[in-house]
Amino acid sequence: MIYKDKSKSVEERVEHLLSLMTTEEKAGQLIQPFGWQTYTNNEGNITLNESFKQQVVNGGVGSLYGALRADPWTGVTLENGLSAREGAEAVNLIQRHAVEHSRLGIPILIGEECSHGHMAIDGTVYPVPLLLGSTWNVDLYRDMCRAVARETRAQGGAVTYSPVLDVVRDPRWGRTEECFGEDPYLIGELAVASVQGLQGERLDQEDAVAATLKHFVGYGSSEGGRNAGPVHMGWRELLEVDLYPFRKAVEAGAQSIMPAYNEIDGIPCTVNTELLEDVLRKEWGFDGLVITDCGAINMLASGHDVAADGLEASVQAIQAGIDMEMSGEMFGQYLVQAISEGKLEMHVLDQAVRRVLALKFKLGLFEQPYVDADRAAEVIGSAEHIQLARQLAAEGVVLLKNEAAALPLSTATAGRIAVIGPNADQAYNQLGDYTSPQPKSKVATVLDGIRSKLAVSKSGHAGEGSGGNSNGEAEVLYAPGCRIKGDSREGFEHAIETARQADTVIMVVGGSSARDFGEGTIDLKTGASNVSDNSWNDMECGEGIDRMTLGLAGVQLELIQEIHKLGKTLVIVYINGRPITEPWVDEHADAILEAWYPGQEGGHAIADILFGDVNPSGKLTISIPKHVGQLPIYYNGKRSRGKRYLEEDLEPRYPFGYGLSYTTFDYSELKLSTESMTADETVTVSVDVTNTGACRGAEVIQMYVSDVVSRVARPAKELKGFAKVNLEPGETQTVTFHIGAEQLQYIGRDLKPVVEPGQFHIHIGSHVNDTQFTELTVEEA
Question: Which of 389, 578, 613, 742 is the most buried (most CB within 10 A)?
Answer without folding.
Answer: 578
